[in-house]
Design a protein that fits this description.
303 residues, 2 domains, five-stranded antiparallel β-sheet
């Protein structure tokens, strides 16, 4: 068994000015970091985490992922001590490794970004949020439905970089051919229920690039209140024809995949790479600008 097609999309959303999400796309290793903190501190924390995960020794096991997250925690904590402007900053981290051991996917997790498995038409959440509302649900104080509407649903109880050390959830999942793994920031899951995520994937899972665009478009259609980052990768038989391992970039987001949601104009996505449609549009725009310039020059000479 091996990795098939992959896709990654990150988007600022409709309410935020900047993007405090960061990601690692380094097959067979993938990760998302969603930063928090005042001013630009969240962006700094997520960037430090992503850099530590990407530049560290390539993990081969759960222990390797934990070591990378521990190093990210150390770097963020030390930066927050040295720079008062970043005091208290932190980030979530959710990472996935397709292990050398055939049929195994290793997950490392801190915070409320999530990892999901879409298999045989059913979506299952693999990680458990380290958040206040989850603790209240587990203690019986809130119902799951109340937790979805709770004003403190974004308050997390564990993050990378907020303390000198961090406890990392790490576990292994048995993979099967046809599995689609989703890693995402809470900008997606705060906007869409699990049933809505499953509905989008039911229509688009056959094409991970299209699925990634559709998920982001659906979250933006619901308001896009936070940054949205989506990483998708599928598992295939070792004997299946090799697919392009580059991140899918797609064309326009397939809004029909979210046609049950109220639609709004979609902000252009910031993708890893650029599709051919985007290059053609850029060339046409350049020709139009040059044409206007020549027209103005001609009129100037006539005067």
């Amino acid at each position: 068994m091996r990795i098939g097609r992959t896709a990654v999309v990150t988007d600022t959303g409709r309410r935020r000015i900047g993007n405090e999400d960061a990601y690692v796309f380094k097959p067979p290793f993938f990760a998302i970091a969603d930063g928090m903190g005042g001013a630009r501190a969240g962006e700094i924390a997520a960037g430090l985490a992503a850099a530590a995960l990407e530049e560290g020794a390539e993990p081969t096991s759960a222990e390797g992922i934990v070591a990378l997250i521990d190093e990210a925690n150390r770097q963020i904590w030390e930066r927050s001590i040295q720079d008062p402007d970043t005091s208290g900053m932190g980030t979530t981290v959710t990472a996935a490794l397709v292990a050398a051991d055939p049929g195994k996917v290793v997950i490392g997790h801190v915070g409320d970004s999530r990892a999901y498995l879409y298999r045989d038409g059913t979506l299952a959440q693999l990680t458990t949020d380290h958040s206040l509302v989850v603790e209240l649900v587990e203690s019986g104080i809130l119902t799951p439905e109340e937790a979805e509407r709770h004003p403190q649903r974004s308050a997390i109880t564990r993050a990378v970089g907020t303390e000198p050390t961090v406890e990392v959830d790490a576990f292994t999942v048995d993979a099967e051919p046809g599995d689609l793994y989703l890693i995402c920031s809470d900008g997606l899951t705060d906007m869409l229920t699990e049933e809505e995520l499953e509905d989008v994937l039911e229509k688009t899972a056959a094409d991970p690039a299209r699925a990634a665009d559709a998920l982001v478009a659906a979250a933006n259609a619901r308001g896009g209140e936070d940054n949205i980052t989506v990483v998708l990768f599928e598992m295939t038989d070792a004997d299946a024809p090799a697919e392009d391992a580059e991140p899918g970039v797609g064309e326009e987001p397939p809004i029909e995949a979210a046609d049950h949601l109220e639609q709004e104009p979609t902000r252009s996505l910031r993708r890893h790479g650029a599709g051919p449609g985007g290059r053609v549009a850029a060339i046409l725009l350049l020709l139009a600008v040059l044409g206007i310039g020549l027209l103005l020059l001609y009129l100037g000479f006539r005067r």
